Structure to design on (258 residues):
């Protein structure tokens, strides 16, 4: 569809460039498809009358006519280059999208193949103990402080590229981010949570990495990557609804290349 649209636009530009003004020495002009000088006469194809005509060369302002034609031609070539670049970018983006599975999750590209990050099991630890965090079965809200954690001090998913790109396919409209994790004993802390007394509202604090994001498809596929190279450490891609404590976590680590 896009290819056909670009082709039509290029054809429209070509038609626009072909229809030019043949200026007269008195300042008026004829709209012509083309013209040619033959001795002391100028022959032209009139767009108004759809036929070839001619007039004395001395009545035609060839300098102004040629100058405007060159300006229009330059503009046409510029627009055609822009359309060609847009078409190339669209094809490359389509090829990129086709590599990524449509199933909700987080992926990265290795060579020509998309690979999936496995979602980690996260839990909420309060002063009353630990509860597994699930989207479909919210945990009881107890006033006070809590932490969202994932098991093990280090991720098994290791990247050496500090500017690693990821793709996240959302199942529904949600927010997402890359966060730094804090290792503590045998767990990694994803975020700290304050549960407000009486209202039971949650205030979530996470160490967020600044990212670029690019929407790849209308149905929720995004490409994300850090604005600055990530320092070695533990990280995660998270999907969440602010204030609802329903995170999904895909953990990874960044290590310096040897």
């Amino acid at each position: 569809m896009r290819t056909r649209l670009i082709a039509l636009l290029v054809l429209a530009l070509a038609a626009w460039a072909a229809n030019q003004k043949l200026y007269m020495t008195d300042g008026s002009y004829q709209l012509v498809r083309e013209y040619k000088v033959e001795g002391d006469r100028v022959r032209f194809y009139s767009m108004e009358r759809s036929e070839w005509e001619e007039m004395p060369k001395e009545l035609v302002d060839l300098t102004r006519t040629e100058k405007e034609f060159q300006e229009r031609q330059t503009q046409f070539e510029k627009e055609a280059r822009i359309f060609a670049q847009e078409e190339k970018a669209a094809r490359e983006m389509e090829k990129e999208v086709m590599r990524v599975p449509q199933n909700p999750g987080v992926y990265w590209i290795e060579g020509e193949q998309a690979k999936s990050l496995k979602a980690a099991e996260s839990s909420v630890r309060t002063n009353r103990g630990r509860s597994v965090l699930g989207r479909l079965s919210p945990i009881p809200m107890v006033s006070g402080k809590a932490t969202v954690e994932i098991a093990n001090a280090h991720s098994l998913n290791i990247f050496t590229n500090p500017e690693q790109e990821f793709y996240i396919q959302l199942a529904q409209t949600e927010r997402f981010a890359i966060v730094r994790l804090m290792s503590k004993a045998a767990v990694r802390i994803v975020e700290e949570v304050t549960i407000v007394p009486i209202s039971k509202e949650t205030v979530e604090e996470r160490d967020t990495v600044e990212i670029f994001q690019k929407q790849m498809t209308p149905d929720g596929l995004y490409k994300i990557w850090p604005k600055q190279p990530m320092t070695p450490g533990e990280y995660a891609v998270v999907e969440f609804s602010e204030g609802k404590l329903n995170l999904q976590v895909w953990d990874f680590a960044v290590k310096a290349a040897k």
User: Anything to note?
Assistant: The chain has two domains: 2-99, 105-254. The mean pLDDT is 85.
